[in-house]
């Protein structure tokens, strides 16, 4: 009788371990699949940030109209456009900043003044839709055309995609 | 003779085998489904990336869906896919015809002071224009429509153009891509039409089978599937045959005709909405910018009057816009809108020549 019970237990235990192995294998495969989906999600996020950045760099709304080769921002357009308008074009969840890094003319003393309708052209930086929060940031040196004098200087574009 | 333990072993073995087999089959089924879906998701991610690259750089590209038809339908701005979820294409204005191989091209509607960029993703496309009547009206209409279709010189998937159906039906070897069509064919056609030639109407059923899109352009009504009726100042009507009736749409430029040709009413409404939303932003921006420049003494001295006139025209366009949004605006409102757009382009050219553009 005892021997029979022991045999039974042996059998039940064996079955239990076989099932355990199958369940673990299933979990392993599902975990791997989930991590693939996770990395795909991450790729989509990077891709969105990259798109925003390139969309800004080549936007016909802030670039000089007649300039065909690459991008050249126009300081008057940068001053005239608002965060609301840019959000209508590119959606929400991002911010952008532009600043002179090599100001032209005599505007060195105004490089820390934010450009608005009142301060233009005696100003040196622009900021759109910036709020608190962590963001994935892209930076690129760009050309800025000073409309009032026709001179061109070097600037920096910074686009951040907020991590939601 | 089987004892109780042997019977127990057999029953337990059968139960466990069935259970394991069931679990494995279910899991294998789901796993294959997940694998296929993730492959399709990955294709769509790459497709969207291609669209974004073309939209931001302006460099056209080809896209192949690796043997699968992932896109089932396009209901702007959503791409319906075979993995039962839709992909939102905002903020890119997209005109798309589903197919396995697509050419992706960034086109633009240029008004001088503003460019409306949009993407065209099309499979191999053959466009057949059939102009009837006065060449002075039909040829500009052909030109404005062809300009809003892709120039596929740099892609493997092509959009070709031809005029009329006089040749042998299979003999349209002479089809041209956009650049050559606009630079050569149009002039030849104009000369021929001025000396009395008029292309014959096409056997539309035959050309439909051959995947041609036939666009008949005539000031009179014709019994055709897709008729463009130019009226004045770049505007007119498009008639699309639906069963035995014609649906009428107003067009203000070639872009409207192309949206109707490629996607019908849904795409026309979506594209118009997108166009006007972006134009609102462009107008506000240009008015603000002109105001800023006027407040600068040196700019005001150089081009104050022209800036003021430019602001006036743009403000008039902004006032006029609500009247022409929607499917059937009044003819006179569209004519006025187009005339204001022409004036704004002219004013901008003046500003540009003074170095204030």
Taken from the alpha-carbon principal axes, the silhouette of chain B is extended
Q: Average pLDDT value of chain B? A: 88
What is the assembly state of the chains in this entry? heterodimer
Describe the global form of chain A: rod-shaped
Number of helices of chain A: 3
Distance between the termini of chain B: 104 Å
Written description of the protein model:
The complex is a heterodimer of chains A (164) and B (357). Chain A is of the alpha+beta class. In chain A, 43% of the residues lie in helices and 24% in strands. Chain A contains 3 helices and 5 strands, in the order H-E-H-H-E-E-E-E. Chain A has helices at residues 2-57, 75-80, 83-90, and strands at 72-74, 94-102, 125-128, 135-146, 151-162. Chain A has a 5-stranded mixed β-sheet. The longest helix of chain A has 56 residues, at 2-57. Chain A is rod-shaped. Chain B has 7 helices and 13 strands. Chain B has helices at 4-57, 135-147, 178-194, 204-209, 254-294, 297-324, 331-353, and strands at 61-64, 71-75, 78-81, 86-88, 94-96, 101-110, 115-122, 125-132, 159-163, 212-218, 226-232, 235-242, 245-251. In chain B, the strands form 3 sheets. Chain B has a 6-stranded mixed β-sheet with strand order 9-8-10-11-12-13. A 4-stranded mixed β-sheet of chain B has the order 1-6-7-5, with helices on both faces. A 3-stranded antiparallel β-sheet of chain B has the order 2-3-4. In chain B, helix 2 runs antiparallel to helix 3 (178-194), helix 5 runs antiparallel to helix 6 and helix 6 (297-324) packs antiparallel against helix 7. Chains A and B meet through helix 1, helix 2 and helix 3 of A and helix 1 and helix 5 of B.
């Amino acid at each position: 009788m005892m021997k029979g019970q022991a045999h039974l237990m042996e059998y039940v235990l064996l079955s239990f371990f076989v099932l355990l192995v199958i369940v673990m294998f299933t979990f392993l495969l599902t975990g791997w699949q989930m991590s693939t989906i996770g990395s795909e999600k991450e790729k989509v996020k990077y891709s969105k940030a990259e798109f925003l950045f390139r969309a800004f760099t080549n936007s016909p709304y802030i670039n000089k109209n007649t300039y065909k080769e690459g991008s050249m921002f126009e300081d008057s357009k940068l001053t005239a456009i608002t965060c609301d308008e840019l959000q209508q074009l590119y959606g929400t969840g991002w911010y952008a900043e532009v600043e002179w890094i090599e100001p032209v003319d005599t505007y060195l003393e105004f490089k820390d003044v934010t450009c608005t309708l009142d301060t233009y052209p005696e100003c040196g930086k622009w900021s759109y839709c910036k709020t608190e929060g962590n963001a994935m940031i892209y930076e690129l040196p760009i050309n800025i055309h000073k409309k009032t004098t026709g001179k061109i200087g070097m600037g920096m574009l910074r686009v951040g995609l907020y991590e939601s | 003779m089987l004892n109780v333990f042997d019977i127990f072993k057999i029953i337990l073995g059968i139960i466990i085998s069935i259970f394991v087999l069931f679990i494995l089959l279910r899991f294998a089924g789901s796993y294959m489904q997940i694998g296929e879906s993730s492959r399709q998701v990955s294709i769509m991610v790459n497709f969207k990336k291609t669209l974004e690259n073309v939209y931001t750089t302006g460099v056209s590209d080809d896209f192949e869906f690796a043997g699968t038809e992932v896109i089932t339908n396009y209901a702007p701005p959503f791409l319906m896919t075979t993995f039962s979820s839709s992909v939102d294409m905002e903020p890119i204005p997209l005109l798309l015809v589903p197919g396995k191989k697509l050419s992706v091209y960034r086109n633009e509607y240029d008004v001088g002071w503003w460019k409306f960029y949009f993407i065209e993703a099309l499979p191999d496309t053959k466009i057949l224009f059939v102009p009837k009547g006065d060449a002075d009206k039909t040829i500009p209409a052909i030109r404005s429509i062809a300009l809003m279709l892709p120039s596929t010189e740099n892609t493997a998937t092509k959009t070709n153009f031809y005029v009329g159906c006089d040749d042998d039906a299979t003999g349209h070897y002479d089809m041209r891509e956009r650049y050559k069509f606009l630079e050569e064919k149009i002039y030849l056609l104009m000369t021929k039409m001025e000396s009395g030639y008029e292309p014959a109407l096409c056997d539309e059923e035959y050309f439909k089978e051959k995947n041609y899109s036939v666009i008949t352009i005539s000031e009179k009504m014709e019994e055709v599937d897709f008729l463009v009726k130019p009226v004045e100042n770049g505007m007119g009507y498009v008639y699309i045959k639906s069963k035995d009736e014609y649906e009428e749409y107003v067009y203000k430029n070639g872009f409207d005709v192309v949206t109707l040709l490629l996607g019908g009413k849904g795409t026309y409404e979506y594209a118009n909405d997108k166009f006007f939303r972006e134009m609102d932003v462009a107008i506000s921006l240009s008015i603000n910018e002109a105001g800023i420049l006027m407040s600068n003494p040196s700019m005001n001295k150089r081009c104050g009057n022209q800036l003021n006139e430019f602001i006036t025209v743009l403000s008039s366009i902004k006032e006029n816009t609500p009247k022409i949004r929607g499917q059937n605006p009044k003819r006179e409102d569209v004519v006025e809108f187009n005339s204001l757009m022409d004036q704004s382009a002219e004013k901008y050219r003046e500003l540009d020549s003074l170095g204030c553009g």
